Amino acid sequence: MEQMPPLKIGTRGSPLALAQAHETRDRLMAAHGLPETAFEIVVIKTTGDDAALIAADKALKELGGKGLFTREIEEALLSGAIDIAVHSMKDMPTAQPPGLLLDCYLPREDVRDAFVSPRFARIADLPEGAVVGSSSLRRRAQLANRRPDLKLVEFRGNVQTRLKKLDDGVAEATFLAMAGLRRLGRTEVARSAIAPEEMLPAVAQGAIGVERRSQDTRVAALLEPIHDLATGHRLAAERAFLATLDGSCETPIAGLAVLEGGTLWLRGEILRPDGSEALRAEARAPLAEAAALGADLARGLLAQAPKGFFAWKR
Fold this sequence. Notes:
Layout: E1 7-11, H1 15-32, E2 39-43, H2 47-54, H3 60-63, H4 71-79, E3 84-88, E4 100-105, E5 113-116, E6 131-133, H5 137-146, E7 151-153, H6 159-167, E8 173-177, H7 178-184, E9 192-194, E10 208-213, H8 217-223, H9 229-244, E11 253-260, E12 263-271, E13 278-286, H10 290-304
Parallel strand pairs: 1-2, 1-3, 6-7, 6-8
Antiparallel strand pairs: 3-10, 4-10, 5-8, 5-9, 11-12, 12-13
């Protein structure tokens, strides 16, 4: 029998992206009893990777938004250069290009944000006027809303880069995702994990998605056993919430769905970019109505938001 060529797994080249690609490969190996040689991990440089080097002090919204980290990978998938693409779901636009499908999610990791600081254990411990670094518009708006006394600065880079900036005194604290630290085996970096009640996470934070060509039935069959149904239900609600809000890197939006038996509990938050106002809501619905739950919650928040809510104040 002719041996099948290796399944090509496309990913960014960062340590976290590679860890996610390896997790996907390992789950496929275990599900199908396949050797490591049945897979090939293909590293693809994205516009976002170049932008991070060229303009490390600029906000992502100034560089092009979420598509920065996915465009080249999706082009490789459409061209057949790779067979599947592994993504951090919080980086993914809510709509995929024609011909591509996201219907496989790995079991979700810790959804919480990590508070990282060489001197302080929690946000509440930061002194008045302390400098905090973050590239996340959502985190910056949430922090400005809760602690308007703090000074916020742009702060990007991998874990090592951000830790060095803290050591150099660029800021007193920053934030990372607990999920990423767990996947990298670096949980000691977190001084504390921030409860969702204090800082609601980004939509789909902690989730890995595996994208494929929509007509590729062989790959669909390979992915089916590693798809986590619970994560799928949660992300259906959260991503519908984000899509209805037209969420992008330019809008501070947070959302988290939790399973309660056969019911989904969804919490959502939208903020003015400067943190001066936040609107929050929550709702519950059966699992089968996950997408409708997300869309309805978003519409309710939009109905409360005054005109120009997401606009920057000058």
